[in-house]
């Protein structure tokens, strides 16, 4: 089983390899560096480099895998540690954490996003329940780096065990508050988090900095803490495997999975498939995309979901795109798997264009779509395919 490490696991351009075929590498060793915006990539195993392309580095792991790893350089500068460790947003966005944390917020706040709002995913929730101390320490580091006097750990009130654990861990900490998010999708969207906690309505394209805030996902905070306290590079990922697997009723969480391993390994470790089954979805039900058993675990992957087979559809389909649910490429992917003919496409009326990308102007607040649906019916649509947000 080879380890496949894509050279683009972050916002920005692919990284530049620093190793060649035949090189022997150690777990934690720096093997690729960004060219401009991006983040370092490190070997997740001890082994030998088998292939280097413009897209991936492939490593053949040695039989025995010691627990130790190559540590990043010793430094008192926390931002330098986070940058060298290659920490990026682990919730799916993949934005380099050291760049986001360069902000100074003497009158603002940092927010730890513990919404865990994609259905079925549970690894962030388990982290908050079982190791709330790492979340609180991460909040303190982020406050120190940004000079923010306040930190919010944002979580849904229904996650009672996590709430109790976080409250105990933060009880004696000055400036750290547990804050509650609504039980809707997409409550984990940064703009929703800022709206619900700070009462600030960010426009599409605006970043939380416009509200004097920085937002980081719970698992990203874990990697920040690992970089500062353990000098550990981002070489492992937390995953939820759920759906049509034998342990899929509530999902099975795997912590510290080496990057580059195939997702099929963890489907088997979750008991294997329940038949019938269909697509392997990489990510959450709303924002995920189709994958394969040999798809590698990457820094931004949170979910491996096995679906029911898609129903086959002979009627003509119209696609209604939504930023929070699914945009046209994903809807077309699903329509193709259903064997359907797509005759019309429209965007949710809340979608507005920002720098060539369509964004929702009020995530979580779905409007009526009668006019849009009627327009597609005139084009011959017989059935609608969409992924919408809200409850």
Automatic annotation (TrEMBL):
<dbReference type="GO" id="GO:0051539">
    <property type="term" value="F:4 iron, 4 sulfur cluster binding"/>
</dbReference>
<dbReference type="GO" id="GO:0046872">
    <property type="term" value="F:metal ion binding"/>
</dbReference>
<dbReference type="Pfam" id="PF13375">
    <property type="entry name" value="RnfC_N"/>
</dbReference>
<dbReference type="InterPro" id="IPR031001">
    <property type="entry name" value="PR_assoc_PrdC"/>
</dbReference>
<protein>
    <submittedName>
        <fullName>Proline reductase-associated electron transfer protein PrdC</fullName>
    </submittedName>
</protein>
<feature type="domain" description="RnfC Barrel sandwich hybrid">
    <location>
        <begin position="2"/>
        <end position="57"/>
    </location>
</feature>
<dbReference type="InterPro" id="IPR011538">
    <property type="entry name" value="Nuo51_FMN-bd"/>
</dbReference>
<keyword id="KW-0813">Transport</keyword>
<keyword id="KW-0479">Metal-binding</keyword>
<dbReference type="GO" id="GO:0016020">
    <property type="term" value="C:membrane"/>
</dbReference>
<dbReference type="InterPro" id="IPR037225">
    <property type="entry name" value="Nuo51_FMN-bd_sf"/>
</dbReference>
<keyword id="KW-0677">Repeat</keyword>
<dbReference type="InterPro" id="IPR026902">
    <property type="entry name" value="RnfC_N"/>
</dbReference>
<keyword id="KW-0411">Iron-sulfur</keyword>
<dbReference type="InterPro" id="IPR010208">
    <property type="entry name" value="Ion_transpt_RnfC/RsxC"/>
</dbReference>
<keyword id="KW-0408">Iron</keyword>
<dbReference type="GO" id="GO:0009055">
    <property type="term" value="F:electron transfer activity"/>
</dbReference>
<feature type="domain" description="NADH-ubiquinone oxidoreductase 51kDa subunit FMN-binding">
    <location>
        <begin position="82"/>
        <end position="225"/>
    </location>
</feature>
<keyword id="KW-0249">Electron transport</keyword>
<dbReference type="Pfam" id="PF01512">
    <property type="entry name" value="Complex1_51K"/>
</dbReference>
<keyword id="KW-0004">4Fe-4S</keyword>
């Amino acid at each position: 089983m080879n380890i496949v490490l894509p050279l683009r696991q972050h916002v920005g351009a692919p990284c530049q390899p620093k190793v060649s075929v035949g090189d022997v590498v150690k777990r934690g060793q720096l093997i690729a560096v960004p060219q401009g915006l991006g983040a370092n990539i490190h070997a997740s195993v001890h082994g030998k480099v088998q292939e280097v392309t413009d897209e991936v580095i492939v490593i053949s792991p040695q039989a025995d895998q010691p627990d130790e790893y190559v540590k990043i350089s010793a430094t008192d500068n926390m931002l330098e540690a986070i940058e060298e460790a290659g920490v990026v947003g682990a919730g799916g966005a993949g934005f380099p954490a050291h760049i986001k944390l360069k902000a100074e917020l003497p009158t603002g706040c940092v927010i730890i996003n513990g919404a865990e709002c994609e259905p079925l995913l549970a690894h962030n929730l388990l982290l908050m329940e079982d190791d709330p101390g790492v979340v609180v320490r991460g909040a303190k580091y982020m406050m120190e780096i940004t000079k923010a006097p306040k930190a919010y750990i944002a979580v849904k009130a229904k996650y009672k065990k996590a709430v109790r654990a976080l409250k105990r861990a933060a009880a004696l900490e000055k400036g750290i508050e547990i804050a509650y998010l609504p039980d809707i999708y997409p409550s984990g969207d940064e703009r929703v988090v800022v709206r619900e906690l700070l009462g600030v309505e960010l426009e599409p394209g605006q970043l939380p900095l416009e509200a004097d805030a920085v937002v980081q996902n719970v698992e990203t905070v874990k990697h920040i803490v690992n970089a500062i306290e353990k000098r550990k590079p981002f070489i492992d990922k937390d995953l939820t495997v759920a759906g049509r697997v034998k342990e899929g009723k509530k999902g099975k969480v795997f912590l510290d999975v080496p990057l580059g391993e195939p997702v099929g390994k963890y489907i088997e470790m979750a008991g294997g498939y329940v038949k019938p089954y269909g697509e392997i979805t990489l990510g959450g039900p709303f924002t995920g995309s189709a994958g394969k058993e040999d798809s590698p675990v990457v820094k931004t992957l949170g979910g491996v979901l096995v679906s029911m087979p898609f129903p086959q559809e002979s009627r003509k389909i119209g696609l209604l795109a939504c930023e929070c649910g699914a945009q046209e490429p994903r809807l077309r992917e699903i329509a193709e798997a259903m064997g359907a003919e797509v005759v019309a496409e429209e965007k949710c009326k809340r979608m507005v264009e920002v720098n060539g990308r369509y964004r929702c102007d009020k995530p979580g607040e779905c409007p009526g779509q009668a006019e849009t649906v009627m327009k597609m019916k005139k084009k011959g649509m017989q059935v609608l395919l969409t992924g919408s947000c809200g409850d």
